[in-house]
């Protein structure tokens, strides 16, 4: 038996190009569209935006720019190969390009994808911190950057990148979603992935229009403090699933409510730390 026959002709199948390959391309374009301008902003580090910087120490833009671009290239090449290998299974899923569902069904499906993906991501991410082997050999790559900028969002080990992509596809496969809905969903997911790393807490950031998303501060604290704030979109997971909220993040939110800027909150934190050390 010719085992290559199993994959024979996938490149002649238009659905192969529309479903896995176009989805991968759209996903990467969405990430770069958000990540690139914010990376340039972080590189320039304009004085007018410094008051919005979540961490006051300098960004590590130059040090991690080429490694980030390199990882993006390699990770997408590996993911594309894995999509080719899994094509015999993928092509039998109910994802389709027949009739589009009515708008409220699309909205409900997108909400379901966010809820499911965030739940699965929370547990995968938390496990990557709790399992010593995964932390040391896989997840530590993403944590090399403590003060992130947009392009660092996909700076990660290829295994983490592939697993994260797999989680993203579970919702659409379960519901047998329309291809266009899958595309909208991967765009939302990549906006979140890029925005979570921009390093700025800016009131006019358009992502605040996304109703369920917590904004870049949440994940920034994960990079700064390393433990806690494992969710991507929704803070309820860290609040209720084992109390993995980062206390400094909660103090930040309180500070914001009192009208303090990111700089003032960090100054207050360091004063308290000094008082704690000397007290
Ligand atoms: Zn982590
Ligand atoms: Zn991150």
Automatic annotation (TrEMBL):
The keyword Lipid biosynthesis does not apply. InterPro entries: Fatty_acid_hydroxylase, Sterol_Desaturase_Related. GO terms for molecular function: oxidoreductase activity. It is found in: Membrane. It comes from Paraperlucidibaca wandonensis. This is Sterol desaturase family protein. The keyword Magnesium does not apply. Its EC number is 1.-.-.-. Keywords: Membrane, Oxidoreductase, Transmembrane, Transmembrane helix. Its main location: membrane. It comes from the Bacteria. The lineage of its organism: Bacteria, Pseudomonadati, Pseudomonadota, Gammaproteobacteria, Moraxellales. Residues 111-242 form the Fatty acid hydroxylase domain. The chain crosses the membrane at residues 20-44, 64-90, 102-123, 165-188. Pfam families: FA_hydroxylase.
